[in-house]
Amino acid sequence: MSHDDRMGVALGLVGYLPEEGWFRHNPRGIHGVAHVTRVLVWAATIADLIGRPDAIRRGELLWAAATHDVGRIDDGIDAEHGERSAAWVRAHLLSERPAVAEVDLDLVADLCTWHLVPDGGIGRLSLELLILKDADGLDRVRLGDLDPNRLRLQVSRRLVPSAERLERATRPHHEQTADRVLATAISLGH
After folding, report:
1. Within its chain, how far is the Cα of 127 from the centroid?
2. Residue 1's pLDDT band (boundaries 50, 70, 90)?
3. Taken in order 45, 144, 152, 69, is the CA torsion positive or negative?
4. 87/154 Cα distance (integer angstroms)
5. Whether the Cβ atoms of residue 34 and residue 42 lie closer than 8 Å to each other
6. pLDDT computed for residue 152 by the predictor
7. Quick one: which of 59, 74, 69, 66 has its CA closest to 41?
8. What is the CATH code for 3-187?
């Protein structure tokens, strides 16, 4: 993908950027807008590198990336945050972003629900869910525990150095906004 193509993709993410008011818990925290925006960048990047637009429900994937952690009540394990994020998607996303009427909100909600469930506990891992899980996994660099062997897709493993660069460039997390993280991703060529 050329630099111009990457720039176009990154700029196309502006409409998906999360708002701080969507977050139930600390929008400037470790699971807040900076994290969710990096996951959004990685989800779009992985989808584009796979290069099968006919096989990926891109809008649903990107909205799930933008909302997957909005239901968190803390920064701990919070095993129900996927379900709370899904409930938020169903109750609020359409009124927050009317353009979302073009996507399947049930799929967005399902992706939010399942993003944190271990793979063995999921009946069918869709390509969108694999991408979301890997995009979220790439941002584990912020926690210091990214294990590339746990990423599901080979293309995701190739992005580890880029994930490390983007995370370093968007520190400290509490000072970042979604716009700033996206601008940094664009400047780094992601």
Report:
1. 14
2. very low
3. negative
4. 32
5. no
6. 97
7. 66
8. 1.10.3210
